[in-house]
Write a structure and sequence with these properties.
alcohol-forming very long-chain fatty acyl-CoA reductase activity; transmembrane; two-stranded parallel sheet; seven-stranded parallel beta sheet; lipid biosynthesis; FAR; globular; alcohol-forming long-chain fatty acyl-CoA reductase activity; Rossmann fold; about 475 residues; binds NADP nicotinamide-adenine-dinucleotide phosphate; alpha/beta; 13 strands
Protein backbone atom coordinates (compact mmCIF):
# COMPACT_ATOMS: atom_id res chain seq x y z
CA UNK A 1 0.00 0.00 0.00
CA UNK A 2 1.25 3.51 -0.76
CA UNK A 3 2.47 5.78 2.02
CA UNK A 4 -0.33 8.37 2.14
CA UNK A 5 -3.03 5.73 2.23
CA UNK A 6 -1.00 3.83 4.80
CA UNK A 7 -0.91 6.86 7.04
CA UNK A 8 -4.65 7.56 6.88
CA UNK A 9 -5.69 3.94 7.19
CA UNK A 10 -7.55 3.50 10.50
CA UNK A 11 -7.02 7.13 11.53
CA UNK A 12 -9.75 9.75 12.02
CA UNK A 13 -9.92 13.25 10.60
CA UNK A 14 -11.73 16.32 11.95
CA UNK A 15 -12.85 18.47 9.01
CA UNK A 16 -14.40 21.94 9.20
CA UNK A 17 -16.10 23.54 6.20
CA UNK A 18 -17.27 20.13 4.94
CA UNK A 19 -20.47 21.62 3.54
CA UNK A 20 -18.42 24.02 1.40
CA UNK A 21 -17.08 23.62 -2.12
CA UNK A 22 -13.58 22.54 -1.11
CA UNK A 23 -14.50 20.74 2.12
CA UNK A 24 -16.97 18.48 0.32
CA UNK A 25 -14.30 17.43 -2.15
CA UNK A 26 -11.82 16.70 0.69
CA UNK A 27 -14.47 14.61 2.47
CA UNK A 28 -15.26 12.60 -0.65
CA UNK A 29 -11.62 11.87 -1.38
CA UNK A 30 -10.83 10.90 2.23
CA UNK A 31 -13.68 8.40 2.13
CA UNK A 32 -12.94 7.08 -1.36
CA UNK A 33 -9.17 6.73 -1.28
CA UNK A 34 -7.87 6.84 2.28
CA UNK A 35 -9.51 4.01 4.20
CA UNK A 36 -10.01 6.39 7.13
CA UNK A 37 -11.71 5.24 10.32
CA UNK A 38 -14.00 8.26 10.68
CA UNK A 39 -14.32 11.75 9.33
CA UNK A 40 -15.84 14.11 11.89
CA UNK A 41 -17.54 16.99 10.13
CA UNK A 42 -18.39 20.20 11.95
CA UNK A 43 -21.70 21.41 10.53
CA UNK A 44 -23.72 24.32 11.85
CA UNK A 45 -27.49 24.71 11.74
CA UNK A 46 -28.47 27.15 8.98
CA UNK A 47 -31.54 28.58 7.28
CA UNK A 48 -33.96 26.64 9.51
CA UNK A 49 -32.18 23.33 9.03
CA UNK A 50 -30.52 21.44 11.85
CA UNK A 51 -26.91 20.30 11.63
CA UNK A 52 -28.16 16.72 11.25
CA UNK A 53 -30.46 17.64 8.34
CA UNK A 54 -27.63 19.54 6.70
CA UNK A 55 -25.23 16.62 7.07
CA UNK A 56 -27.77 14.31 5.42
CA UNK A 57 -28.30 16.81 2.63
CA UNK A 58 -24.53 17.08 2.15
CA UNK A 59 -24.16 13.34 1.66
CA UNK A 60 -26.91 13.40 -0.98
CA UNK A 61 -24.72 15.56 -3.20
CA UNK A 62 -23.99 14.07 -6.64
CA UNK A 63 -20.34 14.34 -5.71
CA UNK A 64 -20.75 11.18 -3.62
CA UNK A 65 -22.38 9.13 -6.39
CA UNK A 66 -19.21 7.14 -7.12
CA UNK A 67 -18.83 6.34 -3.43
CA UNK A 68 -22.44 5.21 -3.20
CA UNK A 69 -21.50 2.43 -5.63
CA UNK A 70 -18.01 1.55 -4.40
CA UNK A 71 -18.64 1.98 -0.65
CA UNK A 72 -22.39 1.91 -0.10
CA UNK A 73 -22.01 2.29 3.69
CA UNK A 74 -19.66 5.27 3.55
CA UNK A 75 -22.09 7.54 5.42
CA UNK A 76 -21.54 5.57 8.66
CA UNK A 77 -17.95 6.89 8.67
CA UNK A 78 -19.09 10.50 8.47
CA UNK A 79 -19.76 11.57 12.06
CA UNK A 80 -21.63 14.79 12.66
CA UNK A 81 -20.18 17.31 15.07
CA UNK A 82 -22.91 19.89 15.50
CA UNK A 83 -21.29 23.25 16.11
CA UNK A 84 -20.82 26.86 15.16
CA UNK A 85 -17.27 28.04 14.61
CA UNK A 86 -18.06 31.50 15.93
CA UNK A 87 -19.43 30.31 19.28
CA UNK A 88 -17.16 29.92 22.30
CA UNK A 89 -15.50 26.51 22.10
CA UNK A 90 -16.97 26.22 18.58
CA UNK A 91 -20.30 25.32 20.20
CA UNK A 92 -19.24 21.69 20.70
CA UNK A 93 -21.05 19.42 23.17
CA UNK A 94 -18.96 17.90 25.94
CA UNK A 95 -19.53 14.45 24.53
CA UNK A 96 -18.34 15.48 21.05
CA UNK A 97 -15.30 17.17 22.55
CA UNK A 98 -14.40 13.97 24.35
CA UNK A 99 -14.84 11.85 21.22
CA UNK A 100 -12.68 14.17 19.15
CA UNK A 101 -10.00 14.30 21.85
CA UNK A 102 -9.72 10.55 21.89
CA UNK A 103 -9.98 9.80 18.21
CA UNK A 104 -8.70 12.58 15.92
CA UNK A 105 -5.26 12.36 14.30
CA UNK A 106 -5.61 15.00 11.57
CA UNK A 107 -7.42 18.35 11.57
CA UNK A 108 -8.29 20.02 8.27
CA UNK A 109 -9.58 23.52 8.87
CA UNK A 110 -11.37 24.73 5.76
CA UNK A 111 -14.28 26.70 7.27
CA UNK A 112 -14.15 30.40 6.47
CA UNK A 113 -16.14 33.28 5.15
CA UNK A 114 -15.03 33.71 1.53
CA UNK A 115 -17.27 36.71 0.97
CA UNK A 116 -15.12 39.63 -0.18
CA UNK A 117 -17.80 42.09 0.93
CA UNK A 118 -18.19 40.66 4.45
CA UNK A 119 -18.47 43.22 7.22
CA UNK A 120 -15.16 43.51 9.05
CA UNK A 121 -16.60 42.20 12.31
CA UNK A 122 -18.09 39.09 10.70
CA UNK A 123 -14.95 38.38 8.69
CA UNK A 124 -12.71 38.68 11.78
CA UNK A 125 -15.02 36.49 13.85
CA UNK A 126 -15.09 33.62 11.33
CA UNK A 127 -11.64 33.85 9.80
CA UNK A 128 -9.55 34.86 12.81
CA UNK A 129 -11.31 34.30 16.15
CA UNK A 130 -12.72 30.93 15.09
CA UNK A 131 -9.22 29.81 14.08
CA UNK A 132 -7.98 30.79 17.54
CA UNK A 133 -10.74 28.66 19.09
CA UNK A 134 -9.78 25.81 16.81
CA UNK A 135 -6.11 26.04 17.77
CA UNK A 136 -6.99 26.07 21.46
CA UNK A 137 -9.09 22.96 20.98
CA UNK A 138 -6.52 21.22 18.73
CA UNK A 139 -3.97 21.47 21.54
CA UNK A 140 -6.21 19.20 23.62
CA UNK A 141 -6.42 16.44 21.00
CA UNK A 142 -4.33 13.67 22.45
CA UNK A 143 -3.69 11.83 19.18
CA UNK A 144 -3.18 14.85 16.93
CA UNK A 145 -0.44 14.35 14.35
CA UNK A 146 -1.13 17.13 11.87
CA UNK A 147 -3.20 20.26 11.34
CA UNK A 148 -3.75 21.67 7.84
CA UNK A 149 -4.97 25.25 7.75
CA UNK A 150 -6.55 26.38 4.48
CA UNK A 151 -5.61 29.92 3.66
CA UNK A 152 -5.49 31.72 0.31
CA UNK A 153 -2.73 32.60 -2.13
CA UNK A 154 -4.06 36.18 -1.98
CA UNK A 155 -3.01 36.88 1.64
CA UNK A 156 -0.34 39.12 0.18
CA UNK A 157 -2.37 40.40 -2.75
CA UNK A 158 -1.39 44.05 -2.36
CA UNK A 159 2.07 43.00 -3.55
CA UNK A 160 2.81 41.55 -6.95
CA UNK A 161 5.17 38.88 -5.57
CA UNK A 162 3.85 36.43 -3.01
CA UNK A 163 6.51 34.42 -1.17
CA UNK A 164 5.84 31.10 0.52
CA UNK A 165 6.17 32.47 4.03
CA UNK A 166 3.95 34.24 6.54
CA UNK A 167 3.40 37.90 5.76
CA UNK A 168 3.40 40.29 8.69
CA UNK A 169 0.09 42.17 8.71
CA UNK A 170 0.14 45.88 9.38
CA UNK A 171 -2.01 45.33 12.47
CA UNK A 172 -1.63 42.85 15.27
CA UNK A 173 -4.57 40.39 15.08
CA UNK A 174 -5.12 40.75 18.84
CA UNK A 175 -5.43 44.51 18.45
CA UNK A 176 -8.06 43.99 15.76
CA UNK A 177 -9.91 41.50 17.96
CA UNK A 178 -9.82 44.05 20.79
CA UNK A 179 -11.25 46.67 18.41
CA UNK A 180 -14.24 44.42 17.81
CA UNK A 181 -14.96 44.44 21.54
CA UNK A 182 -14.48 48.18 21.96
CA UNK A 183 -16.42 49.42 18.92
CA UNK A 184 -20.00 49.31 17.79
CA UNK A 185 -20.73 47.80 14.38
CA UNK A 186 -21.22 51.28 12.93
CA UNK A 187 -17.96 52.62 14.34
CA UNK A 188 -16.10 49.58 13.07
CA UNK A 189 -17.56 49.81 9.56
CA UNK A 190 -16.72 53.50 9.43
CA UNK A 191 -13.05 52.66 9.97
CA UNK A 192 -12.98 49.40 8.03
CA UNK A 193 -11.81 50.65 4.64
CA UNK A 194 -9.01 52.63 6.21
CA UNK A 195 -8.05 49.80 8.53
CA UNK A 196 -7.77 47.05 5.96
CA UNK A 197 -5.66 49.09 3.55
CA UNK A 198 -3.64 48.14 1.47
CA UNK A 199 -5.58 44.85 1.40
CA UNK A 200 -8.47 45.33 -1.03
CA UNK A 201 -11.15 43.49 0.97
CA UNK A 202 -11.99 42.09 4.40
CA UNK A 203 -11.51 38.52 3.13
CA UNK A 204 -7.82 38.77 2.22
CA UNK A 205 -7.18 41.07 5.19
CA UNK A 206 -8.58 38.61 7.73
CA UNK A 207 -6.97 35.58 6.07
CA UNK A 208 -3.63 37.37 6.44
CA UNK A 209 -4.33 38.15 10.11
CA UNK A 210 -5.27 34.49 10.60
CA UNK A 211 -1.93 33.23 9.33
CA UNK A 212 -0.04 35.55 11.67
CA UNK A 213 -2.18 34.52 14.61
CA UNK A 214 -1.64 30.88 13.69
CA UNK A 215 2.12 31.34 13.72
CA UNK A 216 1.98 33.10 17.08
CA UNK A 217 -0.37 30.69 18.79
CA UNK A 218 0.37 27.27 17.28
CA UNK A 219 2.82 26.32 20.02
CA UNK A 220 4.08 22.81 19.32
CA UNK A 221 1.23 21.83 17.05
CA UNK A 222 2.31 20.15 13.79
CA UNK A 223 0.75 22.71 11.44
CA UNK A 224 1.04 23.60 7.75
CA UNK A 225 -0.65 26.26 5.65
CA UNK A 226 -2.13 25.50 2.25
CA UNK A 227 -2.80 28.52 0.03
CA UNK A 228 -4.78 27.89 -3.15
CA UNK A 229 -5.48 30.61 -5.71
CA UNK A 230 -8.95 30.65 -7.37
CA UNK A 231 -10.50 27.22 -6.98
CA UNK A 232 -12.37 25.97 -10.05
CA UNK A 233 -14.24 22.80 -11.02
CA UNK A 234 -12.62 19.39 -10.65
CA UNK A 235 -10.22 18.28 -13.36
CA UNK A 236 -10.56 14.53 -12.90
CA UNK A 237 -12.09 13.30 -9.67
CA UNK A 238 -14.48 11.84 -8.82
CA UNK A 239 -15.58 13.01 -12.26
CA UNK A 240 -14.57 15.88 -14.50
CA UNK A 241 -16.07 19.31 -14.14
CA UNK A 242 -17.71 18.94 -10.76
CA UNK A 243 -18.72 22.33 -9.34
CA UNK A 244 -21.73 23.22 -7.22
CA UNK A 245 -21.52 26.92 -6.52
CA UNK A 246 -21.53 30.19 -8.42
CA UNK A 247 -18.56 31.83 -6.76
CA UNK A 248 -15.83 33.78 -8.54
CA UNK A 249 -14.95 32.34 -11.96
CA UNK A 250 -17.94 29.97 -12.06
CA UNK A 251 -20.46 32.79 -11.64
CA UNK A 252 -18.90 34.73 -14.48
CA UNK A 253 -18.86 31.62 -16.69
CA UNK A 254 -22.62 31.34 -16.07
CA UNK A 255 -23.21 35.05 -16.71
CA UNK A 256 -21.29 35.04 -19.97
CA UNK A 257 -22.42 31.52 -20.92
CA UNK A 258 -26.07 32.54 -20.76
CA UNK A 259 -25.37 35.68 -22.78
CA UNK A 260 -26.60 37.84 -19.89
CA UNK A 261 -23.15 39.35 -19.55
CA UNK A 262 -21.14 40.19 -22.66
CA UNK A 263 -18.24 42.09 -21.17
CA UNK A 264 -15.87 41.71 -18.25
CA UNK A 265 -13.64 44.43 -16.94
CA UNK A 266 -9.99 43.37 -17.05
CA UNK A 267 -7.23 42.25 -19.33
CA UNK A 268 -7.76 38.97 -21.14
CA UNK A 269 -4.01 38.57 -21.59
CA UNK A 270 -3.52 38.28 -17.87
CA UNK A 271 -3.16 34.93 -16.17
CA UNK A 272 -6.31 33.37 -14.73
CA UNK A 273 -4.82 31.70 -11.69
CA UNK A 274 -7.25 28.79 -11.43
CA UNK A 275 -6.59 25.50 -9.62
CA UNK A 276 -8.93 22.50 -9.83
CA UNK A 277 -10.78 21.60 -6.63
CA UNK A 278 -9.80 17.92 -6.78
CA UNK A 279 -6.12 18.84 -7.05
CA UNK A 280 -6.57 21.03 -3.97
CA UNK A 281 -8.20 18.16 -2.05
CA UNK A 282 -5.39 15.79 -3.02
CA UNK A 283 -2.74 18.30 -1.97
CA UNK A 284 -4.47 18.93 1.38
CA UNK A 285 -4.68 15.21 2.15
CA UNK A 286 -1.04 14.72 1.13
CA UNK A 287 -0.03 17.65 3.36
CA UNK A 288 -1.92 16.11 6.28
CA UNK A 289 0.36 13.09 5.87
CA UNK A 290 3.65 14.95 5.31
CA UNK A 291 3.08 17.36 8.22
CA UNK A 292 2.70 14.37 10.53
CA UNK A 293 5.74 12.59 9.13
CA UNK A 294 8.14 15.52 8.91
CA UNK A 295 7.28 17.43 12.08
CA UNK A 296 9.02 20.55 10.83
CA UNK A 297 10.06 23.10 13.46
CA UNK A 298 9.14 25.86 10.99
CA UNK A 299 5.58 26.51 9.85
CA UNK A 300 5.54 25.27 6.25
CA UNK A 301 3.54 27.34 3.74
CA UNK A 302 2.46 26.00 0.35
CA UNK A 303 1.24 28.35 -2.35
CA UNK A 304 -0.90 26.29 -4.69
CA UNK A 305 -1.32 28.22 -7.92
CA UNK A 306 -1.13 27.62 -11.66
CA UNK A 307 0.30 30.91 -12.94
CA UNK A 308 3.96 29.99 -12.56
CA UNK A 309 3.89 26.30 -13.39
CA UNK A 310 1.15 25.94 -16.01
CA UNK A 311 -0.49 29.26 -16.83
CA UNK A 312 -3.89 29.77 -18.41
CA UNK A 313 -5.20 33.17 -19.48
CA UNK A 314 -8.60 34.82 -19.27
CA UNK A 315 -8.47 34.80 -23.09
CA UNK A 316 -8.78 31.01 -22.87
CA UNK A 317 -12.04 31.44 -20.95
CA UNK A 318 -13.26 33.92 -23.57
CA UNK A 319 -12.58 31.30 -26.21
CA UNK A 320 -13.85 28.14 -24.50
CA UNK A 321 -17.01 29.50 -22.82
CA UNK A 322 -18.75 30.34 -26.13
CA UNK A 323 -17.18 27.30 -27.77
CA UNK A 324 -19.05 25.12 -25.30
CA UNK A 325 -22.21 27.08 -24.55
CA UNK A 326 -22.96 28.01 -28.16
CA UNK A 327 -23.08 24.29 -28.91
CA UNK A 328 -24.61 23.12 -25.71
CA UNK A 329 -26.58 26.09 -24.37
CA UNK A 330 -27.81 26.62 -20.87
CA UNK A 331 -31.59 26.43 -20.55
CA UNK A 332 -31.47 29.89 -18.95
CA UNK A 333 -29.69 31.39 -21.97
CA UNK A 334 -30.70 34.71 -23.48
CA UNK A 335 -28.98 34.22 -26.80
CA UNK A 336 -25.48 33.30 -27.87
CA UNK A 337 -22.48 33.61 -25.62
CA UNK A 338 -20.20 36.39 -26.90
CA UNK A 339 -17.90 37.36 -24.03
CA UNK A 340 -15.15 39.92 -24.33
CA UNK A 341 -12.87 41.86 -21.99
CA UNK A 342 -12.40 45.62 -21.68
CA UNK A 343 -9.53 47.44 -20.10
CA UNK A 344 -11.36 50.69 -20.75
CA UNK A 345 -13.94 51.45 -18.02
CA UNK A 346 -16.17 53.52 -20.30
CA UNK A 347 -16.26 50.82 -22.95
CA UNK A 348 -17.08 48.26 -20.25
CA UNK A 349 -19.92 50.37 -18.84
CA UNK A 350 -21.33 50.90 -22.32
CA UNK A 351 -21.40 47.15 -22.82
CA UNK A 352 -22.95 46.18 -19.50
CA UNK A 353 -25.50 49.00 -19.20
CA UNK A 354 -25.89 50.37 -22.74
CA UNK A 355 -26.17 46.91 -24.31
CA UNK A 356 -26.75 44.11 -21.80
CA UNK A 357 -29.02 45.92 -19.32
CA UNK A 358 -31.13 47.41 -22.12
CA UNK A 359 -31.53 43.94 -23.63
CA UNK A 360 -32.56 42.46 -20.26
CA UNK A 361 -35.12 45.24 -19.69
CA UNK A 362 -36.58 44.49 -23.12
CA UNK A 363 -36.65 40.72 -22.51
CA UNK A 364 -38.29 41.24 -19.11
CA UNK A 365 -40.89 43.38 -20.87
CA UNK A 366 -41.60 40.49 -23.27
CA UNK A 367 -41.87 38.09 -20.32
CA UNK A 368 -44.40 40.43 -18.69
CA UNK A 369 -46.42 40.54 -21.91
CA UNK A 370 -46.55 36.76 -21.84
CA UNK A 371 -47.77 36.85 -18.24
CA UNK A 372 -44.48 35.47 -16.93
CA UNK A 373 -42.42 36.77 -14.04
CA UNK A 374 -39.67 39.12 -15.19
CA UNK A 375 -36.28 37.91 -13.93
CA UNK A 376 -33.58 38.93 -16.35
CA UNK A 377 -32.71 42.35 -14.94
CA UNK A 378 -32.31 40.66 -11.56
CA UNK A 379 -30.07 37.99 -13.08
CA UNK A 380 -28.06 40.68 -14.84
CA UNK A 381 -27.58 42.48 -11.51
CA UNK A 382 -26.37 39.25 -9.92
CA UNK A 383 -24.01 38.52 -12.80
CA UNK A 384 -22.59 42.04 -12.53
CA UNK A 385 -22.02 41.59 -8.80
CA UNK A 386 -20.13 38.36 -9.54
CA UNK A 387 -18.02 39.93 -12.24
CA UNK A 388 -17.38 42.87 -9.89
CA UNK A 389 -15.83 40.42 -7.41
CA UNK A 390 -13.78 38.77 -10.17
CA UNK A 391 -12.53 42.17 -11.40
CA UNK A 392 -9.82 42.07 -8.75
CA UNK A 393 -8.44 38.93 -10.43
CA UNK A 394 -9.01 39.92 -14.05
CA UNK A 395 -7.25 43.24 -13.75
CA UNK A 396 -4.24 42.10 -11.71
CA UNK A 397 -1.61 39.45 -12.05
CA UNK A 398 0.58 37.94 -9.33
CA UNK A 399 3.81 36.07 -9.15
CA UNK A 400 3.29 33.33 -6.59
CA UNK A 401 6.36 31.53 -5.37
CA UNK A 402 5.78 27.84 -6.02
CA UNK A 403 8.99 26.18 -4.81
CA UNK A 404 7.53 24.37 -1.82
CA UNK A 405 4.72 22.64 -3.65
CA UNK A 406 7.03 21.71 -6.54
CA UNK A 407 9.57 20.23 -4.11
CA UNK A 408 6.79 18.43 -2.23
CA UNK A 409 5.56 16.69 -5.39
CA UNK A 410 9.08 15.38 -5.97
CA UNK A 411 9.10 13.76 -2.53
CA UNK A 412 5.95 11.72 -3.12
CA UNK A 413 6.08 8.15 -4.38
CA UNK A 414 4.94 7.45 -7.93
CA UNK A 415 2.01 5.43 -6.58
CA UNK A 416 0.85 8.24 -4.30
CA UNK A 417 1.21 10.69 -7.16
CA UNK A 418 -1.23 8.58 -9.17
CA UNK A 419 -3.81 8.38 -6.37
CA UNK A 420 -3.37 11.93 -5.10
CA UNK A 421 -2.42 13.91 -8.18
CA UNK A 422 -1.94 17.60 -7.51
CA UNK A 423 0.72 18.33 -10.10
CA UNK A 424 -0.73 21.43 -11.74
CA UNK A 425 1.48 20.84 -14.78
CA UNK A 426 -0.71 17.86 -15.69
CA UNK A 427 -3.82 20.02 -16.25
CA UNK A 428 -4.68 20.40 -19.95
CA UNK A 429 -6.51 23.69 -19.88
CA UNK A 430 -8.52 23.37 -23.09
CA UNK A 431 -9.98 20.05 -21.94
CA UNK A 432 -10.37 21.38 -18.42
CA UNK A 433 -12.36 24.44 -19.51
CA UNK A 434 -14.71 22.40 -21.69
CA UNK A 435 -15.41 20.05 -18.76
CA UNK A 436 -15.77 23.07 -16.46
CA UNK A 437 -18.56 24.42 -18.70
CA UNK A 438 -20.15 20.98 -18.90
CA UNK A 439 -19.99 20.71 -15.08
CA UNK A 440 -21.59 24.13 -14.70
CA UNK A 441 -24.52 22.96 -16.81
CA UNK A 442 -24.90 19.56 -15.18
CA UNK A 443 -23.96 20.08 -11.52
CA UNK A 444 -24.23 23.79 -10.73
CA UNK A 445 -27.28 24.56 -12.91
CA UNK A 446 -28.61 20.99 -12.50
CA UNK A 447 -29.73 20.82 -16.13
CA UNK A 448 -30.42 17.66 -18.09
CA UNK A 449 -27.65 16.63 -20.48
CA UNK A 450 -30.00 14.71 -22.80
CA UNK A 451 -29.87 15.64 -26.48
CA UNK A 452 -33.56 16.56 -26.47
CA UNK A 453 -33.14 19.09 -23.68
CA UNK A 454 -30.05 20.52 -25.36
CA UNK A 455 -32.08 20.87 -28.56
CA UNK A 456 -34.76 22.73 -26.59
CA UNK A 457 -32.15 25.09 -25.15
CA UNK A 458 -30.78 25.65 -28.66
CA UNK A 459 -34.24 26.69 -29.83
CA UNK A 460 -34.43 29.18 -26.96
CA UNK A 461 -31.00 30.47 -27.92
CA UNK A 462 -32.05 30.99 -31.53
CA UNK A 463 -35.31 32.63 -30.50
CA UNK A 464 -33.42 35.26 -28.56
CA UNK A 465 -30.75 36.08 -31.10
CA UNK A 466 -29.24 35.47 -34.47
CA UNK A 467 -26.30 33.11 -34.51
CA UNK A 468 -23.13 35.21 -34.59
CA UNK A 469 -21.21 34.38 -37.74
CA UNK A 470 -17.62 34.30 -36.64
CA UNK A 471 -17.59 33.38 -33.01
CA UNK A 472 -16.07 30.37 -31.30
CA UNK A 473 -18.50 27.57 -30.78
CA UNK A 474 -20.72 28.32 -33.72
CA UNK A 475 -19.17 25.42 -35.66
CA UNK A 476 -20.97 22.21 -34.85
CA UNK A 477 -18.08 20.23 -33.49
CA UNK A 478 -19.33 19.27 -30.06
CA UNK A 479 -22.85 18.10 -30.72
CA UNK A 480 -23.35 17.96 -34.46
CA UNK A 481 -26.88 18.01 -35.77
N1 LIG B 1 -13.07 28.96 -3.28
C1 LIG B 1 -11.92 29.53 -3.57
O1 LIG B 1 -11.69 29.98 -4.72
C2 LIG B 1 -10.83 29.61 -2.53
C3 LIG B 1 -9.60 30.12 -2.92
C4 LIG B 1 -8.58 30.20 -1.99
C5 LIG B 1 -8.79 29.76 -0.69
N2 LIG B 1 -10.01 29.27 -0.33
C6 LIG B 1 -10.17 28.82 1.06
O2 LIG B 1 -10.69 27.51 1.03
C7 LIG B 1 -11.53 27.30 2.17
C8 LIG B 1 -12.86 26.74 1.72
O3 LIG B 1 -13.47 27.64 0.81
P1 LIG B 1 -14.74 27.21 -0.05
O4 LIG B 1 -14.56 27.69 -1.42
O5 LIG B 1 -15.04 25.77 0.18
O6 LIG B 1 -15.83 28.12 0.64
P2 LIG B 1 -17.39 27.82 0.89
O7 LIG B 1 -17.92 26.95 -0.18
O8 LIG B 1 -18.02 29.13 1.14
O9 LIG B 1 -17.37 26.99 2.24
C9 LIG B 1 -17.11 27.59 3.47
C10 LIG B 1 -17.35 26.56 4.53
O10 LIG B 1 -17.11 27.17 5.81
C11 LIG B 1 -18.22 26.92 6.64
N3 LIG B 1 -18.43 27.97 7.63
C12 LIG B 1 -18.44 29.30 7.40
N4 LIG B 1 -18.75 29.93 8.54
C13 LIG B 1 -18.93 28.98 9.49
C14 LIG B 1 -19.28 29.01 10.85
N5 LIG B 1 -19.50 30.16 11.48
N6 LIG B 1 -19.41 27.83 11.54
C15 LIG B 1 -19.20 26.66 10.90
N7 LIG B 1 -18.87 26.57 9.60
C16 LIG B 1 -18.74 27.72 8.91
C17 LIG B 1 -19.39 26.88 5.68
O11 LIG B 1 -20.48 26.27 6.33
P3 LIG B 1 -22.02 26.60 5.93
O12 LIG B 1 -22.34 25.66 4.82
O13 LIG B 1 -22.72 26.32 7.18
O14 LIG B 1 -22.06 28.05 5.52
C18 LIG B 1 -18.79 26.06 4.56
O15 LIG B 1 -18.80 24.70 4.89
C19 LIG B 1 -11.63 28.64 2.88
O16 LIG B 1 -10.75 28.63 3.97
C20 LIG B 1 -11.18 29.65 1.84
O17 LIG B 1 -10.59 30.78 2.41
C21 LIG B 1 -11.04 29.19 -1.21
Amino acid sequence: MATIQDFYSGRSVFLTGASGFLGKQVLEKLLRSCNVKNVYVLVRPKKGKTSQERKEELLKSKLFSTLKITKPHFSSQVILIAGEMTSPGMGLSEEDERTLREDVSVVIHSAASVNFMEKLRDAVVVNVIALREMLKFAKTLTKLESFVHISTAYVNCHKQFSPECIVKPLHDPHAIIAMLKNNTDEALEAQAQQLIRPWPNTYTFTKCLAEWLLQEEMGNLPVCIFRPSIIGASAEEPFRGWVDNFNAATGVCVGTGTGILTNIYGDQNMKADIVPVDYCANAIIALGWSTAIERSSKLPVFNFTSGQLNPVKWADFVYWIPTYFNQCPLEACTGYSTPSFSTNRLRYLLYVYGKDRVKMIFLDFLLRLKGKTPRLVRLHQRALKGSGVLEFFTSNEWNFESENIAAFIEKISAEDRMTFNFDIKTVKWAEYLIHYCEGIKEYAMKESMSLSSIERARKTQNRFAQQPRSYPGTDDFLYPG
